[in-house]
Every structure is written in structure tokens, then in C-alpha cells.
Specification:
The chain is built from 2 helices and 6 strands; from the N terminus they run αββββαββ. By secondary structure, the protein is of the alpha+beta class.
Length: 122
């Protein structure tokens, strides 16, 4: 049986953040205080391609802090790709933790189809 799931992404898992960075071939995320244009943010900093400032993941709240000046300091598509990769990696981690198999297919439109095989490896 097939189910469609919509996900509102909260970034709370450091392992999934690291996996998303690996998946996108980004530098490893760095825990600490990161400089943004109008201040500082604490959390796990992710440097997206051609972004002037990092995206800072507050793992306890699930929120992201960033300053891309409406795309002038970083393209939205890079943030969207990171969030998609994070969601895919988090879903795979959780499925595997529960003993389920996971298969992944990249679709032509850029979306990702995950199939979770309940109770079995894939």
C-alpha cells in the first residue's frame, strides 16, 4: 500500500545534518557561534555553495538562522537542496533504526522517492 507524506522539516539531528552535507558534498558542519550579517547565531553551521554567511541549525528548537539578503548573498535553491537532503537522510536514519529497509530513487523533477520496507532490509 502506498502513502503520500508531507513533511515540515525541523532540523534537530546532527547525524542527519552531517549526512546531508556529505550527500551534497558540502564542508562538514561546525558546532559553535557563527557570524551573520546582523549578529551571531549558535548552533551547527552549514556553509552552502556561494553563500556569504552559513546557515545555522539550532538543533534544540529545530529552527534555522541565516541571512541571504533575499538571494543576493546566497541562492534559495541551495537551502532547498540542503533541507531536502536533510529530510531524506533523517527519514532513512529513522527507518533503519526501526529495522526497516529503505530504497531511494531520484526522480526527474528533482524530488526523491523513498520506499520503506517495513521489517526488512532492502
Amino acid at each position: 500500500m502506498s502513502h503520500i507524506v508531507n513533511i515540515k522539516t525541523e532540523v534537530r539531528d546532527a547525524t542527519a545534518v552531517r549526512s546531508a552535507c556529505d550527500r551534497l558534498r558540502l564542508p562538514s558542519p561546525v558546532q559553535g557561534t557563527h557570524r551573520l550579517f546582523s549578529g551571531h547565531a549558535n548552533g551547527l553551521g552549514v556553509q552552502l555553495p556561494d553563500w556569504r554567511y552559513p546557515v545555522v541549525c539550532n538543533l534544540s528548537s529545530g529552527e534555522l538562522k541565516y541571512d541571504n539578503y533575499n538571494g543576493r548573498w546566497g541562492e534559495q535553491q541551495h537551502l532547498d537542496a540542503f533541507l531536502q537532503s536533510y529530510a531524506v537522510e533523517k527519514a532513512k536514519l529513522e527507518a533503519r533504526r526501526q529495522g526497516h529497509g529503505v530504497t531511494e530513487v531520484q526522480l526527474a523533477d528533482g524530488s526523491v522517492k523513498l520506499t520503506i520496507n517495513v521489517g526488512g532490509a532492502a
